[in-house]
Amino acid sequence: MRSVNYVKDDGQSSAFVNEPKDFITWDPKLRTGIPDIDSEHENLVVLCNDFYKTLLQNKDTADYQKVIRRTLERCLNYAAIHFEDEEKLMIAAGYDGYRQHKAEHEAFKEKVQIAYTRINQITISEAIKFAHFLRDWIQNHIAYDDKLYIPSLVEFLKSKATKQ
Q: What pLDDT is recorded for position 10?
């Protein structure tokens, strides 16, 4: 699996001055026990927080949609990479729930793509509602849907490691 690290546009990891509080907090209970997947999940949380903070910090500017678009593009691109990595592992492990899980990923991508195409018309209120959708989806998907594939993937990864 490839290693993907998320870096903010400014290339720094330091906090913004007067940065809003995190919108979503990484909870260790969300860990899958699969380091690459856990790292990608944590990065999705960072991206969701970045989207929300960018939204709040730019809501009164004339070009807030442009700023939101850039952040949302990063979210879309990273989610696509993560979903691909997760789905490849599910296929390799022979996970029975793969088709349903992939359908959930596709539904998410479709909803995000629709929001992305509407970004120039989106109001601040709609953007905040969308941020809530992102947060809730990430938390629920990781906490419930992703937990379903853990036994299959862990077993597959252990057997793969013992063969090497």
A: 47
Residue owning tokens 């990484």 = 26
Question: Looking at the chain, how many residues does it have?
Answer: 164
Q: Which of 155, 153, 128 is nearest to 48 (CA)?
A: 128
Q: What is the pLDDT of residues 40-58, one digit of tens each?
A: 999 999 988 988 888 888 8
Q: What is the DSSP string of 37-96?
A: HHHHHHHHHHHHHHHHHHHHHHTTSTTHHHHHHHHHHHHHHHHHHHHHHHHHHHHHHT-T
What average pLDDT does the segment 84-88 reach?
Answer: 95
Sole residue written with tokens 């807030």: 64
Contact at 8 Å (CB) between 23 and 132?
no
Provide the whole-model pTM.
Answer: 0.80
**Residue for token digits 């090497």?**
164
Q: Is the pLDDT of residue 19 over 60?
A: no
In sequence order, the 6+-apart residues with CB closer than 8 A to the CB of 146 are: 32, 37, 41, 86
Angle between helical axes of 146-163 and 64-93 (0-180°, round to 10): 50
